[in-house]
Amino acid sequence: MSPVLVRRKPLTLGLLALLYAPLQATAAPSAAAANDSAELGAAHEAVTLDGLSVIGSRRTRQQQEVSAVEIAASAPGTNPIKVLEKLPGVHFVASDPWGSYEWSNRIAIRGFAQNQLGYTLDGIPLGDNSYANSNGLSPNRAVSAENIALIDVAQGAGALRTASTSNLGGSLLYTTRDPATEAETLVSLAIGNNASHRVFARYDSGQIGGFSSYVSAMSSEADKWKGGGARRQKQLNAKTLFEWGDGHRLNGWFDYSSRDETDDLDLSRNLIERCGMDWDNYAPDWDTALEAAHGRYQGCAQGKDDAYYLARGLRDDYLAGLNGVFQLGSDTTLNASVYYHRNAGQGHWFTPHIASPEIPLALRVTSYDVERAGTLAALSRQFGVHQIEAGFWYERNVHSGGRSYVHIDGPVNEHHLIDASRFDGRLFRQRWETRTLQWYLQDSLQLADDRLGIDIGFKGQRVVTDAEVIAPGRAGGRLQARDAFMPQLGLRWQLNEQADVFATYSENQAAFRPGVNGAWSLTQEAFDLSALTAKPESSRSLQTGIRFGNDHVEASATVYATAFNDRQLIIVPCAGVVSCPNQFANVGSASTRGAELAVVWKPVEGMRWLNSVTFNDSRYNEDYLNNSYTNPEDGSHRVPARDKQMVDTPRHMFATELSHRFGAFNVRLGGKYTGKRYYTYSNDASVPGFWLWNAGLSWERKDIGRLRQLNVALDVSNLTDKRYIATLGSNGFRDDDRDGDFQTLLPGAPRQAFLSVTMGF
Length: 761
Known about the structure:
By secondary structure, this protein is mainly β. 7% of the residues lie in helices and 50% in strands. It contains seven helices and 38 strands. The radius of gyration is 26 Å and the shape is globular.
């Protein structure tokens, strides 16, 4: 456990009181309110003119912004989260060139895994962004990239108002663009390798009597870069805004998304050595798949799990929200939202482990559905130097998940959800009902002529989940995560007009995760034993740093430390297609220490050179016991995890990007180094580090005849055609992989090129 972190809440309260009392007594009134609370109800005003900011000016924590300008510079269809990979502390990988394939894409920040971060869209919670998301949907399904105005990235401590039960660490807050004040149309067309094509169109009505709106539609399709099958998405977004009076706003948001993704085969070290990184499922070769199911293998295949016929993921989402910002006087703001989300999804996997009456194959179906609704509200009021903000979030979420199978007699090609009436058997099915209540209170102060900024507050949380067994095979029961006081303290001191220093301390917890791979994915006996002593994961984080910015240079340097308590590991004991219950281990404490540096240099007009360096040392602090594991040294069931690096967490990362605009042209060259990563808790199996380079060239002109805008761009990913392992843990993580047979690796795509044309009318 890190010695630099505050260990007990009474001590935390005492320190806060000692700090707060003299400041309140000596503070002079200040008219400025440019602090963290100023974000409330003003997200639509946020603008990052250069596209990217690495200094988080006037914030009391490390916070960086990526705007629509930066997102638009990527190839159309690129997952906006992938754009963040150049920022310090951000680790992102995916096996496809756009970073949008959900089975493969992974983001981690400062040792916090993808499902330990918080995600919101215009304040609406998006859940934990895991593949089998039980309480939301991925940002890529919630909004088209062209409709994003801003992504706010907090690496270490998210704002207290963030509506999330997973953000042990940082947060990614998405803000959608407002409708344009004048009527306009935008059309984007893109083509590229692997028969990829994408069309996006948006119409803005312009402002009419205070009302404005837009509607957009997107359709994309691309063949996989290896094997058979394609990935498709259709998406519809709409937003309406009404503004009146002095700062009053009412806006509604709607999103529909339908995804159909053919999966890559999860590889192991042995498979890569025998068959190479291009090895994939058999489709469209049904005869070879059938022969393999009979135990007659061809080529490099040696077993039933070396390849399957095909696997596919389907997701349909509907998301709607209504938000109002009301100025209740000159110094009081009310921000309130309601939302509704409905998801239905399935995973289809041809399995040789279940036989149909006529052939030794069946279609295994994993079913997901989510129905949730919630409300959140915040009230902010200025009292002299104090800006007091209080708010709450309530959500009721019903999630169901399970696995079934359908008998087949040939290569069925199901591109739609299969009705439960067609199931020939169930492996398990569960239903979870989760009720979440979160509240917070914060005081933000600007003192010493606005040179000193202080954010002091806390949040509380009560999350109760009841799981019901619909079809036996997994566990049911109640788990709850409750903590009424999780404090956060942030300080900022302005050294001069160009530089400031900051420090933040925060405490967080993560609720128990429902879903087919969550805390209930055990046998009932194992769950009953673990539930007696189960505690939610929690973290205590401290960060401090210095920032500098002028017309030519922006720089930020940060050091940080985090202590985790009750770090929970889900251990996958068998091949993913088999669907055996998972194993659970509480490894007690874990710790993270690290440092980050980001520098943006703009030597001349139109040129920008970004560099970011990350060092992260994230380790488990204790061994744990697993009865199915045998320690090769002493024959015990003790898994040697103590002092081992956390899985899928590189110690070193470096990103660089040079861009130059000259006349109508803009050229970019960027590279990212990702260090060595482990995919077992005992660190006996790893993949080497790698460099990945991307390049882009675009040409843009304004006001050409009837065109308001014309942009033509060529983007190339993996410029050097590097062969590398991108995704770790596609089938989870294990204690060890001494035999090299654990299929949980996904190679990255080779060099790909894409041409796009964007027209504005």
